[in-house]
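Notes taken during the Thursday session

The instructor put the following on the board and asked us to keep it in front of us for the whole hour. The protein is Small ribosomal subunit biogenesis GTPase RsgA. We were told not to look anything up and to reason only from what is written here. First, the residues (373 in total):
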Amino acid sequence: MSHHEHGSTLPENRTLHPLAPLGWNTRTAEAFDALADAHELRPARVTEARRGSVGVAMPEAATADLSPRVRKAAETDRSTSPTSGDWVALRRSGDSWTVEAVLERSGTLVRQGVAKDSHDQVLAANIDGVLICEAADQGPNVGRLERFLSLAWASGAAPVVAVTKSELAGERLPEVIELVEAVTMGPDVYAVSAHTGDGLAELTERLLPGRTWVLLGTSGAGKSSLLNALAGHEVMDTGAIRHDRRGRHTTTHRRLVPMPGGSLFLDIPGVRRIDVPGGEEGVDRTFSDINALVDLCRFRDCSHRNEPGCAVNRAVDEGELDASRLERWFRLRREAEWNRTRNDVRLRTERKREWKKLTRQGRESARHKRGGL
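Then, after some discussion, the predicted structure tokens were revealed:
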């Protein structure tokens, strides 16, 4: 399945199923129908993750508490906790709803845990596209853009880049677009202005009905203004940004925002720290130009430093590859590898801790049995 086919929605589903405007598709329907007690449950989409509960749409808005089973699973692995964009199965009890199961996810945007013992955080689930916002008047910051692209490719969703606030770049706009396109390696780039409307029509054509997108960008990249412009009315507050005493952006809400053409946007907080997920796919897709050169190296285990016959270094020497881009590739590959091994170590540690706990419980159980004889 190609990235553009990801999360496809059958036309008949859009007209027949009441959840079609929320992105309901064949894959989701099959996952729900596979539940043992599906006939007693009701599907819904998570619009907002809260502590111990979630905001859902089905299509009416409601709040649902997490069942003990879902809560316990989240205590073991926080990434399983329902998050924005998830499809869940709800059970009704009187006037309240309970989340009984989280359906299998397709595209997930994951923020890497920072500390050695911290867990990864799923920022958004079941996404088909990632719209990366890079403000024209602030750069572009190519290193940051490469990190966002790696994060997007790792999610399984197709990235698209919007160079926002294009009216503020003036005569520099062609240069900004050229710099952005030099590092995107495939994803489409759109110069857009929420203020003048430039580029919005072209970008809107990419927002197909039933597809879910997530906005990615640092605070100040113009995400809320762009979302309002695409929606045709104010759906996000673009007033004075609230800050805490450290001057940090304090918005933490997440919402599922429907667009006029039938697509959906998951609004998530501005991501301040961008850690590359463990695994190579995200970085490899972002640096596809370098990976194409790697295949041409004389030695299969070439480190691309000083070996003879290195196609990567030859490209740098001949001016075909920017040396700073190569160094950023080295850095992100090291970071991805470290995060992968860190996750492996943490998994082994958690399994060992669980094994010790079960062993201790077994000994206590045996002791009680002996005492009762």
